[in-house]
Amino acid sequence: MEVYQLLRRGEYHADFCEDFSVVQPMGSGRWLCAVMDGCTMGRESHFASTLAAKIIRKVVKERQYQQFHEDISATSVQQELVEIMAALFGEFQQARNYLLLDTNELLTTLVMALLDQNTGEVYGLAVGDATVAINERITRFEQDNQPDYLAYHLGQHFEEWLAQHKQSFHSTSCTNLGLATDGIDSFQSTDSSPSDTRAIAHYLLVDDELTERSEMLNIKLKRLENRYSLVPMDDLAVVRIRLV
């Protein structure tokens, strides 16, 4: 199995990268991966995406400890991902209350997937805008630049939120998984010529060139810049996993 990650501050953001990514082994051949994009209009938006990443890592570690005391190996991929999301939801509620955070301090998109490398099954949830590649197929989750952030629903019970949430994806035969924040659609040429953002998404999330290199995504980003003068205007986080 090959894992690649990319984090790049966009040209429009002078101070902070507001995106973040996570790849964590779950045990039993399962891997959790996620990308987050803090809302530029929020307050200190890099904090929200970083907080989500830290909480995800915490939840994963707690589940790993749990495996020593009880058998959770029979949990389906979908059920385990939902349980992780529920734990994240609860931790966000606690952080909001403990730190006295306003809603606009917790605004971040989130696309999170659980992949079983033994079976090729993957299940994921997308909260807000995101791009997902499963094998050759690329799916864009778009909310017209008005993401329905998780922070808007922290006054609800998790089950209520989950029942009305519609953005999910699933495959039982995944050999290539790619997750990206909406910065993947923000590439522009420094010489003002038009760019094909769909071709760029395919190049980063599907194309197999340079997959033998651990820095594949960073090399491709440099090629886009040096050969075609293409750079992301918005922050960009990418996670890609190949089962080989």
Structural class of the secondary structure composition?
A: alpha+beta
Strand and helix order: EEEHHEEEEHEEEHHEE
What oligomeric assembly is this protein in?
single chain
Q: Tell me, briefly, the overall form.
A: globular
- Per DSSP E runs of 2 or more residues, the count of β-strands stands at 12
- What's the alpha carbon Rg, rounded to whole Å? 18 Å
Strand content: 25-35%
Organism: Hymenobacter mucosus
InterPro entries: PPM-type-like_dom_sf, PPM-type_phosphatase-like_dom
Protein name: Protein phosphatase 2C
Pfam families: PP2C_2 (PF13672)
What does this structure look like?
The protein is an alpha+beta fold. The protein has a single domain, classed as PPM-type phosphatase domain (Phosphatase 2c, domain 1), CATH 3.60.40.10. It has five helices and twelve strands. The radius of gyration is 18 Å and the shape is globular. A hairpin with a 2-residue loop joins strand 6 (130-134) and strand 7. It has a five-stranded antiparallel sheet, with helices on one face. It has a five-stranded antiparallel sheet with strand order 2-3-4-5-8. Residues 16-203 form the PPM-type phosphatase domain. It comes from Hymenobacter mucosus. It holds the Pfam family PP2C_2.
Question: What are the key terms here?
Answer:
244 residues, alpha+beta, Phosphatase 2c, domain 1, 5-stranded antiparallel β-sheet
